[in-house]
Write a structure and sequence with these properties.
By secondary structure, this protein is mainly α. Helix content is 80%, strand content 0%. 32% of the residues are buried.
């Protein structure tokens, strides 16, 4: 319990630090959402000044930071400066779509990567192991943007994969991006577990290969694989923003891109805070799984 409480407090501190840092970075950026209006000859200066007062941009930075943190703690994300709608109505559905896409891509990568790595580890040096290693090396060499573009090109030319707002197309691209890390980490963990003395002892006692794998190798590799789950989700969450823009998935990526271009501070900050919150929640869930799988954590309260 102490372990989980410590991790929860650490996650809350991380979200708070990201929120403050994001606010200060937005303030340090040149211009605001009224910059283009000020240079427009058709809009009176008095109108721009009134909009500045209405959006509290005439107040000092520290005053606006304190007000924003108070509103954030009360669950009020403010009103979009560009779309004039509550930020929560804009961001929450997009954040759920981003989380769904990340989980879909992660599930696809694990459903393919873990069994493929286990088969390659069990038959090291076989054609299966060599083919899997070649595939993973090719995917590692491709940038995330190029992977998304190749999926888009394949979907348009072959019609095998739905595209333009499809979860299948975007999830497939994310699964390809995550597959190399899942495969390599799983392969390394299982090869290391296969060399442990208790595995060699089980084989020496004549246990069937299936029992050696299910009773010794897989449990020994479970801890590193659970840790990989958290790392994979965090990396996929950032990659999903790029994939969403390329493949038209209605997540945080396209919304944040428009908000940054329009300098809508409220929407950008809400997206940043929600992304940090998703990462903190995923990290806490992984820690809970580690507590359930590793008796040493429950016993020692690490």
């Amino acid at each position: 319990m102490r372990f989980l409480l410590t991790r929860a407090l650490r996650g809350a501190g991380l979200v708070a630090a990201v929120a403050v840092l994001g606010f200060l970075m937005m303030e340090a950026a040149p211009g605001d959402f009224l910059t283009d209006l000020r240079s427009s000859p058709g809009i009176p200066t008095a109108t721009v000044e009134q909009m500045q007062r209405d959006s509290s941009l005439d107040r000092p930075v520290w005053s606006r930071l304190v007000s924003w943190i108070r509103s954030l703690l009360s669950g009020d994300l403010g009103v979009s400066l560009i779309w004039h709608r509550p930020v929560a109505d804009l961001v929450w559905p997009r954040a759920c779509n981003t989380a769904l896409l990340s989980l879909t891509g992660l599930s696809g990568a694990w459903l393919v990567g873990v069994p493929l790595a286990a088969l390659s580890a069990a038959r090291s040096g076989s054609w299966v192991s060599r083919a899997a290693s070649l595939l993973v090396s090719a995917l590692v060499a491709l940038p995330d943007l190029l992977v998304a573009l190749l999926v888009l090109l394949t979907a348009v030319s072959t019609r095998w994969i739905p595209v333009s707002g499809s979860l299948a197309g975007a999830g497939f691209a994310l699964a390809l991006i995550a597959l190399p890390a899942v495969y390599r980490h799983t392969y390394s963990s299982m090869r290391m577990a296969m060399g442990e003395p208790f595995v060699e002892s089980a084989r020496a006692h004549g246990l069937p290969p299936v029992r050696v794998w299910t009773g010794h190798i897989l449990p020994a590799a479970a801890g590193p694989l659970i840790s990989l789950l958290g790392l994979s989700f965090s990396s996929l969450l950032s990659a999903s923003l790029l994939v969403e823009v390329v493949l038209g998935w209605p997540g945080l990526g396209p919304l944040l891109l428009e908000a940054v271009a329009a300098r809508d501070q409220h929407v950008v900050l809400a997206g940043v805070v929600l992304s940090a919150g998703l990462l903190a929640a995923a990290s806490l869930l992984i820690d809970l799984l580690l507590v359930l799988c590793d008796p040493r954590i429950r016993r020692d309260g690490l």
